[in-house]
Amino acid sequence: MMMPPPQPLTAALALAPLFLILILFFFSGPVVCWRPWPNIQPNSTDFLFGGSKKYEGSSEFVKLKYHMGPVLTANITVYPIWYGKWESSQKRIIREFIGSVSAPDTKPPSVAGWWKTVRLYTDQTSANISGTVHIGEEKNDRFYSHGKSLTRLSVQSVIKSAVSASTRPLPVNPKSGVYLLLTSDDVYVQDFCNNVCGFHYFTFPSIVGYTLPYAWVGNSAKLCPGVCAYPFAVPNYIPGLKAVKSPNGDVGVDAMISVIAHEIAELATNPLVNAWYAGQDPVFPVEIADLCEGIYGTGGGGSYAGQMLNDKDGATYNMNGIRRRFLVQWVWNHLVNYCTGPNALDQ
User: Fold this and answer.
1) What angle do CA 141, 97, 144 make, to 5 degrees?
2) Distance CA 55, CA 45 (A)
3) Are 75 and 134 in contact (CB under 8 A)?
4) What 8-state DSSP symbol labels residue 79?
5) Phi, psi torsion values for 172, nearest 5 degrees
């Protein structure tokens, strides 16, 4: 399949040498509202009452801008790559979340209602982000083809293996495809647990052969549940925080759902890192989910997640899917200049 020329990061980066793009890839990091990262110096009052001290992330200082790059306006197809050992029950949770994005008849507050905020973002032609998100072909890599410790570059090599496999390769879909690499709980990825729980970028033609938007999200159940599975688990170095019960009985996978949502929302609005982000520096983009990380309901800010819901079994959630419930972080609404979600009390 012929591949269109890769989109430039910006007019300036289009002429930049390869090492500058590699610097951008390796040293760009997420800017988060709040997560209990282990490198933060413990201070109980700061952890419990400090953080951003924002009300639902609202701020007149946030200037999210459109930088003229493409967004995903065509129907979005998510191609999961299951790296490592996955239970069928775990796959079902993730599949049903992705399937819920385009299920408008779901009981509110719903995942589809959450996606409506993402759809507010447009491209140069005023076309909105697509309202259709569905799962495409899937690939299993149960034998850890690239080992159990991956770098950011070897993540791209895993994707290359998936699209170039001799049997049942994933389709190459640069226009509307999202390649979602999901690593099992015994796989470490560069920077995992230290300052990322997932990330997104685009593949390099020099490695994969194509420019494809992709995301990686890891299962933190064994490696760092107190960081990346928060609030279903809490770190022991922060006194006073209490974990909540996960809605689908799998702490690691239930926590992955919000990270998957985070990355897909940002891939849709900033697939080549030259569309929607705050700040003037594309090396450190602050995107629509970064601004709201840790906020799940009205009043959220700092380490307070906001007002959430509880089912009859005591599990915590804030959105309904097709057959399940999920806890998903809010995203930034550039029209009102604060984080919004379908479970907001003013909805």
Assistant:
1) 10
2) 18
3) yes
4) E
5) -95, 115
* Torsion, CA 43, CA 48, CA 52, CA 58, rounded to 10: 180
The rounded distance, in Å, linking the Cα atoms of 294 and 228 is: 11
Q: What type of residue sits at position 319?
A: M
Nearest-angstrom CA–CA distance, 183 and 147: 11
User: How many secondary structure helices (H) and strands (E) does the chain include?
Assistant: 8, 16
**pLDDT tens profile 11-57:** 333 333 344 344 444 434 333 345 777 765 444 333 333 333 333 55
Hey, what amino acid is at 144?
Y
Distance, in Å, from the CA atom of 185 to the CA atom of 187, rounded to the nearest integer, reads 6
For the segment 243-271, the average pLDDT, to the nearest whole number, is 98
Q: Which two tokens stand for residue 10?
A: 């910006």
Question: Is 253 within 8 Å of 208 (Cβ atoms)?
Answer: no
pTM (2 d.p.): 0.86
Q: How far apart are the first and last CA of the chain?
A: 45
